[in-house]
Amino acid sequence: MAAAHRRDPQARGDGVHAPVLTEEVIEVFGRVFSGGDEGWIVDGTVGAGGHTRALLEAYPGLSVLAVDQDPDSLAEAAPVLEPFGDRVRLRRGRMSQLGGLLRREGLPGVAGVLFDIGVCSLHLDRPERGFSFRDDGPLDMRMDPSRERTAADVVNSWDERDLADLFFHEGGERRSRQAATAIVEARRRVPFQRTAALADVIAKAVGGGGRIHPATRCFQALRRAVNQEGEELLRGMQAAEHNLGDGGVLAVITFHSGEDREVRRFLTGRARAGYWSLQSDKPLRAKREEVSKNRRSRSAVLRWATRSGSEGGQA
Ligand SMILES: C[S@@+](CC[C@H](N)C(=O)[O-])C[C@H]1O[C@@H](n2cnc3c(N)ncnc32)[C@H](O)[C@@H]1O
Fold it and tell me: How many Cα neighbours within 13 Å face the side chain of 159?
């Protein structure tokens, strides 16, 4: 592929997952934690542990239930968070399962919930996980390996129209029909099993020439389908609503305009019903200085709101 594609952060991670909007996250949670206030928050997407570590350093009274669905992420976060001892509990689970996790941990009503739902460097940097269109690997893309459906299952079994809709709606691929037609034709000969073969067929169908790898959008759409990311996000926000006490903070970082729309729609709708106070009309975005150091941050959007009208969580 052209050298320009190497600039695409979705194409290849940089080996170390740099958290985005960290200053802003610290500031937002400063609404509930100042000085040495004690309490718990949930980091529902702990990843490599960057945000959790920054929050624990900023607020000495804070403890974090740090959750991720991906065992590789938890393994990455463990040494980073180990110095904080029992101020951190690392647990495997999904955003949508937040209520059950809190009950099991005996933490009814937390003061904050953070979700940061982009793809992690560790996914892109490990071809064996099947997220990368640059380095060949099995066509997998499951963040939670206990899920049954892989990207190969989607690509080899969905009908052409569903694939085209997926690429268009979840990936923003304008040549979605061409990609779907090419996939269906190719899989008649041999079902897809590897990322490189799929990337090749998509690239030929949609054409290159842009700043990003031609398979970027379709791969993003597949990842979202395999991990049910839209549903997870909605159910995660609903779980936050059920479990946050009055004044509790929900902060959500997204990297995709469709996801940001979902967050805005949920928060504005539920704010109208009296459950949330929106804290700003405009979402927070990375400052120029951060974007120059971490290109992944350029598409990051942080929205946050505080819980209102709650008696203190309903775990
Ligand atoms: C962008 S990374 C998070 C980075 C993290 N904030 C940090 O500072 O290192 C996203 C993480 O969220 C996890 N994830 C995505 N969707 C999830 C879900 N529905 N439930 C739990 N974890 C999820 C992924 O496995 C991945 O580790």
Answer: 1
Boundaries of domain holding 160: 148-226
Q: Is 170 in the pocket of ligand 1 (CB under 6 A)?
A: no
Decide if 132 contacts 12 (C-beta within 8 A). yes
Q: Is the CB of 95 under 6 A from ligand 1?
A: yes
Atom 16, ligand 1: residue with shortest CA distance: 117
Paired residues of 271 in beta bridges: none
Our answer on whether the CB atom of 17 is closer than 6 Å to any ligand 1 atom is yes
CB of 248 within 6 A of ligand 1: the answer is no
CA atoms within 13 A on the CB side of 19: 25
pTM of the full structure: 0.91
Of ligand 1's atoms, which has the minimum distance to the CA of residue 232? 19
At 14-47, the pLDDT tens digits run 456 789 999 999 999 998 887 778 899 999 999 9
Both 113 and 253 in one domain: the answer is: yes
Q: Is the CB of 9 under 6 A from ligand 1?
A: no
Q: 233 and 214, same structural domain?
A: no
CATH number of the domain where residue 208 is located: 1.10.150.170
Same domain assignment for residues 95 and 174: no
Q: Is the CB of 302 within 6 Å of ligand 1?
A: no
| Distance from residue 96's CA to the centre of ligand 1 (Å) | 13
